[in-house]
Design goal:
Strand content: 5-15%
Shape: globular
Distance between the termini: 51 Å
Helix content: 25-40%
Number of helices: 25
Radius of gyration: 27 Å
Strand order of the largest sheet: 7-6-8-9-11-10-15
Length: 631
């Protein structure tokens, strides 16, 4: 269906072309833009439902504002596909998320229309406020708009930005895209507040006209404006019996309005464009708007994979006889453990489906807590429960857990609280690129006192480590595992304890030792077999370290005594990870082997592409490991 009836969209290469259209043509342009997104993502998977929900808003923003000189700051790039298509990338949109193609999330490195990095949630208000303050100092006259979803609004950084925006001179516009969704259904007090928030449209229109009249007579200077806003807020609260938290922060509130009426959005944005002071426009939208399957099941259609546009049928591969995803093994094992241990509770920051904690949530809803997009809170909340005798399993994607580093140190490790921090999507994640690769967790967490850090080589090891982590006295315990499928079809095994700080010798050898941690060990095992087959007489030992911390000193002592050549392989950054730990241990204990450290490259963010492609590029695929062994 590519290019089917997209005659208007073909005329729009950049926003300057869009602004040549009449307002009456915009609904048709929105229809064509929505169709183009659907057609493209049916064959080149990506984030579908979020972008469909903001088509009208995207068109209206670029129609009213002089982009790229005016700044539009998107919060989470899931919703920015329409923005990419309208800003010079339509012909290349078929390369979205592919190796060397369009980046998975907006980035100023790719386009001047992409004003800030937005792979993670909740940063738009803070970034846009910084831009708005810079505009005040530089007198550029440019407008600044932040677009944030109701799910991202639950993040602590969003509240910090709101608080500062209320007290720092700026003319920023915040657009709250409220669809009651993040990836799963939105949760928490902010969700409930927004559901009940309703401001009369007539009141907003009257207030806007009154503000223009007051401005024309010089009554809208900063001090007088704030006084009038506070008076208006008090009057409205008295009349409507409703408090508005945004206006309580001296941020003028408008809405909620229909986010799918493009002509009305243009009218509203034009009214707000030159209004002084911070403003918030509240829009109601539907995630997946315009494609019925996505509207009916927004969580599934957040990133549905390939699908048939006409039937709405997702093209799902036959998984019979294929190992399960690591996240599903985690989910089933957590439920199994929770049935045995009544102290176990689950915590997730807005990712119950993504991390498979929904499996436990379905059977034990009172023992699983979705805290919204709030990773730091998730860790400290877990620490509070652990302090009072519960056993939290806190599951956070590795890249998102970076936001909770301070909380891990001060609110868990310092008191040795028994929180199990499960880092899903550790290592290279593929098409989501540098904002989502779990590259830094081992290097960042290794120096933190009291933490146990482990990574399972396969599904059996994951289950055993989860069992070990919840045993009495285990203390704060980190388990990292990758995105995607494991290696064992028969993944169930007895839940037995793994002695903390112990590795294992998988294969003995004479010439050199390969030390691995986590599932990358499976590639290393294949490389060893092939290298020995290609060079008869070569004998390579393989050790699965299993624990980064505490590292197995007895095993390293054996390696140091027996081998003058060591290769370490990991799927995290080389600096500070397993290779660094082994090198430091050998130096501290008087061993001087030649050590080759294989891992993600130093001082580099790895681009997007398939995991296989990226492993080859950074040199941790099977062939790269084999090459080192043979050389």
């Amino acid at each position: 269906m590519k290019d089917k009836d997209l005659s208007l969209l073909k005329q729009v290469e950049y926003p300057d072309d869009l602004r040549k259209l009449s307002i009456g043509q915009l609904p048709e342009l929105c229809r064509e833009l929505r169709q183009d997104i659907i057609d493209e993502l049916s064959v080149n998977p990506g984030h579908l439902a979020s972008s469909l929900g903001v088509v009208e808003l995207t068109v209206a923003l670029h129609y009213v504002y002089n982009t790229p000189d005016d700044r539009i700051v998107w919060d989470v790039g899931h919703q920015a596909y329409g923005h990419k298509i309208l800003t010079g990338r339509r012909e290349r949109f078929c390369t979205n998320r592919k190796l060397h193609g369009i980046m998975p999330f907006p980035s100023p490195l790719e386009s001047p229309y992409d004003t800030f990095a937005c792979g993670h949630a909740s940063n738009s208000i803070s970034a846009a406020l910084g831009m708005a303050v810079a505009e005040k100092r530089n007198h550029t006259g440019r407008q600044v708009v932040a677009v944030i979803g109701d799910g991202a609004m639950s993040g602590g950084l969003a509240f910090e930005g709101l608080n500062n925006a209320s007290s720092t001179p700026n003319d920023m516009l915040i657009i709250l895209n409220d669809n009651n969704m993040s990836i799963d259904r939105s949760v928490g007090g902010m969700k409930q507040y927004l559901i009940g928030l309703n401001t009369n449209k007539t009141y907003n229109d009257l207030r806007f006209k009154l503000s223009r009249w007051l401005k024309s007579r010089g009554y809208m200077g900063d001090d007088r404006r704030k006084g009038l806003i506070r008076f208006g807020n008090a009057l409205k609260s008295a009349l409507s019996h409703q408090q508005n938290m945004f206006e309580g922060l001296d941020i003028r509130y408008f809405g909620p309005f229909d986010g799918h009426n493009v002509a009305e959005l243009v009218r509203i944005l034009r009214q707000l464009k030159d209004m002084k002071g911070p403003k918030l426009l509240h829009l109601h939208t539907v995630k997946g708007k315009g494609y019925k399957p996505a509207e009916q099941a927004a969580t599934i259609w957040h990133a549905p994979g390939r699908f048939c546009v006409d039937s709405g049928e997702r093209i799902v591969a036959d998984t019979t006889g294929i190992p399960p995803k690591f996240q599903d093994v985690f989910g089933h094992t957590l439920l199994e453990l929770a049935r045995q241990n009544p102290k176990i509770v689950g915590v997730t920051p807005a990712m119950p489906t993504g991390c498979s904690m929904n499996i436990m949530m379905k059977e034990m809803p009172d023992r699983v807590f979705d805290v919204g997009i709030a990773e730091g809170h998730a860790v400290t909340f877990s620490g509070g429960m652990a302090k009072e005798g519960l056993q939290p399993f806190c599951n956070i994607y590795s890249a998102f857990a970076q936001r909770s580093y301070d909380n891990v140190i001060h609110d868990v490790a310092l008191l040795r609280l028994p929180v199990v921090l499960c880092l899903d999507r550790a290592g290279l994640v593929g098409e989501d690129g540098p904002t989502h690769h779990g590259a830094f967790d081992m290097a960042a967490l290794r120096p933190v006192p009291h933490l146990t850090i482990a990574s399972p080589m396969d599904e059996h090891e994951l289950r055993r480590l989860m069992y070990t982590a919840q045993l009495p006295g285990a203390g704060p315990f980190v388990i990292r595992y990758p995105r995607g499928r494991g290696v064992l079809v028969d993944w169930r095994c007895p839940l037995t304890e793994v002695p903390v700080g112990t590795g294992r010798c998988l294969k003995d050898g004479r010439d050199m030792a390969v030390l691995t941690i986590g599932p990358i060990g499976n590639l290393a095992a294949q490389a060893i077999r092939e290298a020995e087959a290609e060079r008869p007489g070569l004998s390579v030992a393989h050790y699965d370290m299993r624990f980064l911390k505490p590292i197995d000193g007895s095993l390293l002592d054996e390696v140091g005594r027996r081998y003058s050549r060591i290769v370490t392989v990991e799927d995290g950054v080389r600096n500070g990870g397993l290779g660094s730990a082994v090198t430091e241990w050998m130096a501290d204990h008087g061993y001087t082997p030649r050590i080759v450290r294989m891992g993600l490259p130093d001082d580099t963010f790895v681009e997007h592409g398939t995991v296989d492609q990226l492993q080859h590029i950074v040199g941790i695929d099977k062939d790269s490991i084999k090459k080192h062994l043979l050389s």
